[in-house]
């Protein structure tokens, strides 16, 4: 049987889906067996799988800046990797940080004076944290 894809709402495996839409997806059809090494009939079951290249190839510069902000937080600020998950009242505090960066942009500031990276990269980082926290919260 072919692979089933993840839920389009919560991105979890269909069995662990946290959404109201739990209808099973149709698996990839099994291709007829072709002779090994025949490129004309080569097959890979990609149907229903998430196309990460749309993000990675479409936004490489933005992703690099987000990774740089996260690396700066660890190497310069001294945070432990992934410690943002353990911050007390994390959702409230990351929403506040996001608002501060938006306010700085509204006042005409492009780069965060502390990190030297664009405020938009900090906003994207905060947004990813908030999304991940929301997904974790919904799963429990």
Derived structural class: mainly alpha
The N- and C-terminal alpha carbons lie at a distance of 30 Å
**Which geometry do the CA atoms define?**
elongated
How many structural domains can be distinguished in the coordinates?
2
The biggest beta sheet is recorded as:
none
> From the alpha-carbon coordinates, what is the Rg to the nearest angstrom?
21 Å
What's the rounded overall pLDDT mean?
84
Low-confidence stretches: 20-25
The residue fraction in helices comes out at 40-55%
Structure description:
The chain is built from four helices and no strands. It is mainly α and 140 residues long. The protein has helices at 53-56, 60-75, 90-106, 119-139. The chain is 41% helix and 0% strand. The chain has two domains: 1-50, no CATH class; 55-139.
Characteristic key phrases:
2 domains; 140 residues
Topology:
Elements: H1 53-56, H2 60-75, H3 90-106, H4 119-139
Helix pairs in contact: 2-4, 3-4
Characterize this entry briefly.
This protein is an all-alpha fold.
């Amino acid at each position: 049987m072919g692979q089933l894809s993840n839920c389009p709402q919560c991105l979890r495996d269909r069995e662990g889906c946290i959404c109201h839409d739990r209808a099973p997806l149709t698996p990839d059809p099994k291709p007829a067996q072709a002779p090994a090494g025949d490129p004309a009939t080569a097959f890979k079951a990609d149907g229903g799988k998430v196309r990460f290249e749309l993000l990675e190839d479409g936004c490489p510069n933005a992703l690099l800046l987000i990774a740089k902000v996260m690396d700066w937080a660890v190497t310069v600020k001294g945070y432990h990797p992934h410690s943002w998950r353990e911050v007390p009242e994390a959702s409230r505090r990351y929403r506040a940080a996001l608002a501060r960066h938006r306010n700085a942009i509204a006042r005409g500031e492009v780069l965060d004076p502390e990190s030297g990276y664009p405020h938009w990269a900090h906003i994207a980082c905060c947004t990813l944290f908030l999304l991940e926290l929301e997904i974790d919260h919904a799963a429990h």
